[in-house]
Each structure stands twice: as C-alpha cells, then as structure tokens.
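Example record for the data management plan.
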Amino acid sequence: MAARPLVARQPNERLQALIQEAGCSNAGLARRVNMCGAEHGLDLRYDKTSVARWLRGQQPRGRAPGIIAEAIGRKLGRTVTIDEIGMANGKNLASGIGLQFSPTVLGAIEQVCELWRSDVGRRDFLSGSTVAASALVEPSRDWLITGADTQVARTSGGGRVGASDVEAVRATTDALVELDHRFGSGHVRPIVVHYLNSVVSGLLSGSYRESVGRDLFAAVARLTELGGYMAVDTGQPGLAQRYYIQALRLAQAAGDRGYGGYVLAASMSHLAAQLGNPREIAQLARAAQEGARGQVTPRAEAMFCAAEARGHALMGDARACNQMAAKALAALERTGEDTGDDPVWIAHFDHAYLSDELAHCHRDLGQGEAAARRAQDALDGHPDTRARRRAIGLVLLATAQVQQCEVEQACNTGTRAVELLSTLRSNRGAEYLEDFQQRLAPYLDEPAVREFGARMEMQAA
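Corresponding structural encoding:
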C-alpha cells in the first residue's frame, strides 16, 4: 500500500515503544500484520522495511493502521488503539471505524471502543456519513457464517470486572431506555455515548472470567444497539449503522444468537426501511430468522417475521407480506401477554408493537382502511410512557385517514401528533410528520389543510 507522511514527519515514538514492550522485531511485526490482515480479507505484503518506514513517521493508508494496532494488541494480550500506535491523525484513516465485523474478540473491543471515542470527539466523518446498503447486508453474512468465539475471558488488562459491574450496565441501560421513550433521543444520546466511552470501554478492557465476560458482552451489545437507535432518532443514520454492526459483533461474543437476530431484524432492517431499501429489509429479517432458528422465543419470532413483512410491503408484494404478517400474528398468539420466558430485549414487543408494524405494512401497500385499524390498535395498546411511539402512531393513523380521503379527520389527528411531538426531541417523529404533510399536498385548498399548515408554520417559527 502507498504511504503518506505524518504531520511534520516526526519519528513514531509511540509505535517504537509498543514494539519494544511486545518484544517483537520489525520483521516479526510485519508478519503478524500480514496474517491479521488476511483474516480481514486483505492481501498485505509488509516486511521489516515497511515497519522501519512507519517508525520514521510514514503512515499506511486505509484500514492498515487498525490492522497494525490489532496485531500488536494480540502480541501484548490487550487492546491497542490506533491512537496508541501514533496513527490516528487524518479523517480518511478513521472513516472505516465501526463498519467491519471483526473476526476476533480483541478486534471487536478495539473497534467498538474506537467508535465510541470518535463519537464523543464529534468527528465530522461520523456525523456526516451516509449509509452504505452493502455494509448493512455484509455483516449479516459474516454473522451467519462465523463460528462462536471459543473464549472471551481476559486474564490481564485493567481492573477486575465482576457480576455487579455487569448489573450496573444493565440497570443504566434500562433507565436510559425509559428516558428515551419519554423525551426522545435528543435529550439522552449524549449521556449514552459518554457512558460507553468513559465507563464501559474500561470494563471491556479489564480482566474477567469467562461467564462474566459473556454477560458483559451481552449487556454492552444492548447498550450499543440503543446508541445506534438514538443515532437514528437524532438524524444520524450513517452513525447508527456503525453502532448496529458493532452491537451485532458484541452479541456474537456474548454467544447470544437470539440478540444478534434482533439487531438485524429490529435495528438494521428498520434502518434500511427508513432509507427506502426494501430488498435489504427482507434479507436482514430472513438472516435473523435463519441465524437464530431454534434459539428464540415465539415473541422474537413474531418480531422477525413482522420485519420481513415490512420489506415485502415496501416492494409492493402484498401476498408475501400477508404470509409473513400471519406468521407474526400466530407466533405472538402462542406467547400471549406473558413475558416470563422472554429475554429483556424482546419483552416490550407486544400486540401494540406488532399492530404498529402491520400499520406500516398496510400504509405502504396503500391499504388505508386496514392501516387505520392497525394504527388505532397500536395507540390503544401503547401506554403514555411510550410517548414517541404514540406520536408516530398518531401520524400513521393520520396518514391512513388521508389515504381514505378523510382529510379533515386526518388534520385533527395530525394536530394531536404535533402536540405530542412538541414534548420530544425526535428526528424520527419529525420525518414522519414531514411525510404526512407531503401526503396532504393534493388537498391544499381544503380549509382544514390550510389551518394545519398555518399551525405548523407557527410552531416552526
């Protein structure tokens, strides 16, 4: 690979110190980097001369700095970052952060911690990045074909991590979820990111026995997924994609195939839906069903099937949509309202949530009457604490009413949604509202539509 100089072409003393600490020769490091790169699908051909150039201040392009850090980290038996090896400057070097499904546990820790650091630092390449459809589907393939991590325990590193530390992460996540539902991610996401970067990263880099490690990765996967969802809700889909990919990898380290399926079907497929990629929605949902087959409860099966139904609806395939919707309904009926056997990450998926999903399907198929019925069912089931979900449900209902040419009623329902959204900081809610306003465009001469538009302008002023 071509190399470019570091700023001021200064010797890379950080890299030199780590090589000495690892007791590794230049040729030995080059071999380790080439082997590590091969695991990532890269054909690297570095030698001792390459390492000498790095030590003089040159820096390889692309993903190579991350590979070098991972190779040294393996030799040292701990996580090493690209900052530590003196190769973190330049936005182009960091642009791939979070987009890979790492083949190793150490690599996964390195990548997710670097993502959190970059997010806290508000690096422009993260906040302004777009979503690559291929990077939504490729990690699901890696997840499907990658074998279980045989060991996650760490016997050296930072402080000792115990069961109480894991429980603290779980409790913090539960509290943040509740706040997010009530007030929207704009109020809460900065707290999540700082907690991940300042506390959770230290736990992952600590020392822990096997059972604690598995539980820790499971807890961190859930909080990382929440960070991704909040990125969607604050209008940062490219950042959300990176969080979701890393949550998927952390679930793999936890040995939790069910939660990995949830990340694909509940998170990544919904991101694909928001971006208008229906084929990817169905692919991700099917990957979830296949990869977690026999390892999830009927409630999770219902959610996976509902996600696939949404993909078919966006593609205009009513028959396939109805088949998957029927499977989702049947699976949830087998569960009932009892959540005793369900893991915490799926316990929220009740009949109200499923009705919400099906309302989207009917809306996208142009079936206004059915969409209105499902949207109302969802609203009847969502408690007041699900403020954002209720606001989106109201917009769905209003949209279905427009599809039935009930314009005045739709504007009244839309007004209720606007009132509720005014209490939230939610980009998702704003996007739903914008879509509703576009659907009102053919009826601009109607008094109710003009009044609704005037109300929206006053609120925006």
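Summary line stored alongside the record: The chain has a mean pLDDT of 89.
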